Amino acid sequence: MDPSAAAGIGIVGTIIYLAFIVFGVVVFWKTFAKAGQPGWAAIIPFYNIYVWLKVAGRPGWWIILMLIPIVNVIIALIVSMDISKSFGKDSVFGVVGLWLFSIIGYAILAFGGAQYRGPAALVGQQGAYRG
């Protein structure tokens, strides 16, 4: 293969990769903003996970569980279902849309008509969310 052609493929791949990253930041920014959280939190490492947990109604110390291999997959599944319920969607949307196909599912939350109804995990613990 011609070296200049390989460089061209690398540049195109990098541009596509950066476009996905920018789209992901925009999607999480809008989702956090819909939930009444600061949108800029989407670009701060670890703080974005804390805000994600807060939107779901889970305690902040769960961020430690997100650092443990295999446990983090299970926690992400639970939080995805909670976020789905927090936006008035069902658990299936949480598993398929938010956990398996995250960028698509969160784009649906960010740009669709879903409204944040409060942290779903708190509703189960305290009876009803009072905001």
Structure description:
Keywords: Membrane, Transmembrane, Transmembrane helix. Pfam families: DUF5684 (PF18936). The chain is mostly helical and 131 residues long. The protein has one domain. It is 68% helix and 0% strand. The protein is built from seven helices and no strands. It has helices spanning 3-34, 47-56, 62-65, 71-86, 91-100, 102-111, 120-126. Helix 2 (47-56) crosses helix 4 (71-86) and helix 4 crosses helix 5 (91-100). It is globular, with a radius of gyration of 17 Å. The termini are far apart.
Number of helices: 7
Q: How large is the radius of gyration?
A: 17 Å
Distance between the termini: 61 Å
Q: Strand fraction band?
A: under 5%
**Tally of separate domains:** 1
Major β-sheet, in short?
Answer: none
pLDDT average, as an integer? 89
Give the fraction of residues assigned to helices.
55-70%
Shape: globular
Low-pLDDT runs of 5+ residues are 126-131
Structural class: mainly alpha
Number of strands: 0
N-to-C series of helices and strands? HHHHHHH
Structure described in brief:
The protein has helices at residues 3-34, 47-56, 62-65, 71-86, 91-100, 102-111, 120-126.
Q: What keyword list fits this structure?
A:
7 helices, 68% helix, disordered C terminus
